[in-house]
Amino acid sequence: MASLKPYIYGKQYKVYTVQLGYGREWTVIPSVLQGNISLIATIEVGVSMALLKPVYLYLLRYDAAQQPFASSETYTTANEQLFLNRNRILGADHCSKGLNELRIIPGINISPSVEFSPERSSGFVQQFQIGAQITLYTNTVPVLLQQRNTPWQAYCFLGISFGKRW
Question: pTM here?
Answer without folding.
Answer: 0.78
